[in-house]
Design brief:
The complex is a heterodimer of chains A (112) and B (114). Chain A has 112 residues and is mainly beta. Helix content of chain A is 0%, strand content 54%. Chain A contains no helices and eleven strands. In chain A, the strands form two sheets. In chain A, strands 2, 4, 5, 9, 10 and 11 form a six-stranded mixed beta sheet that branches. A five-stranded antiparallel beta sheet of chain A has the order 1-3-8-7-6, with no helix packed on it. Chain A is globular and about 40 Å long. The model of chain A has no long low-confidence stretch (mean pLDDT 90). In chain B, 0% of the residues lie in helices and 46% in strands. Chain B starts with a strand and ends with a strand. Chain B contains no helices and ten strands. In chain B, strands 2, 4, 5, 8, 9 and 10 form a six-stranded mixed beta sheet that branches. Chain B has a four-stranded antiparallel beta sheet with strand order 1-3-7-6, with no helix packed on it. The model of chain B has no long low-confidence stretch (mean pLDDT 92). Classes of the chains: A mainly beta (112), B mainly beta (114). At the A-B interface, strand 4, strand 5 and strand 10 of A face strand 4, strand 5, strand 8 and strand 9 of B.
Chain lengths: 112, 114
């Protein structure tokens, strides 16, 4: 079963605007990751945040983690048309195997 | 450098036939994962290999699915007697170690069962 649920399922914004995607999960975790997927094929790792971290930045990406609410958010600032993709959160479910449990994803469309 | 590669990129088969999907992980990566993604859905974990340890097969949906990893490198996912519900994109990922956790994904194999 899917651990994560993402919100919204789909998001459409204009270039230059910020995009915020949310992810909720059910079990305790060691870390939470965000991935990006273009055209329904391979995923690209964006950022990993550990359970003892609350916020992390990477370029135009900002990720927050609230373990008390079992939720995370991904903020993409100053969006570009090239950011159009599906975004997935994934948790390790506190396992030590590295096995990831993915959410259903948010489809982001950035209009030029 | 070379990333994770998968073959074939697309596979169309008839119901009841067996298929083999191949994954070449990044050289030196000890952990290898198979996932399945149905249309418009998130990824579903299938199986995980770590070094010489016994694989974690807990995600395999039925006994028609099996996988092996030879020599700690290349992996093959086999689906026997394919069914239409097996149609999906099968994604392979590798990781330098379990501790690193960041997974590097291949482009996937799109399987269509007619």
């Amino acid at each position: 079963s899917q651990q994560g649920e993402e919100d919204p399922q789909a998001l459409s914004i204009q270039e230059g605007e910020n995009a915020t995607m949310n992810c909720s999960y059910k079990t305790s975790i060691n870390n939470l990751q965000w991935y990006r997927q273009n055209s329904g094929r391979g995923l690209v790792h964006l950022i990993l945040i550990r359970s003892n971290e609350r916020e992390k930045h990477s370029g135009r990406l900002r990720v927050t983690l609230d373990t008390s609410k079992k939720s995370s958010s991904l903020l993409i600032t100053a969006s570009r048309a090239a950011d159009t993709a599906s975004y997935f959160c994934a948790t390790d479910g506190s396992s030590n195997t590295g096995k990831l449990i993915f959410g259903q994803g948010t489809t982001l469309q950035v209009k030029p | 450098g070379a990333g994770v590669s998968q073959s074939p990129s697309n596979k169309v088969t008839e119901k009841g036939k067996d298929v083999e999907l191949r994954c070449d992980p990044i050289s030196g990566h000890t952990a290898l994962y198979w996932y399945r993604q149905s249309l418009g859905q998130g990824l579903e974990f299938l199986i995980y290999f770590q070094g010489n340890s016994a694989p974690d097969k807990s995600g395999l949906p039925s006994d028609r699915f099996s996988a092996e990893r030879t020599g700690g490198s290349v992996s093959t996912l086999t689906i026997q007697r394919t069914q239409q519900e097996d149609s999906a994109v099968y994604l392979c990922a590798s990781s330098p170690s379990v501790a690193d956790n960041e997974q590097f994904f291949g482009p996937g194999t799109r399987l269509t069962v007619l």
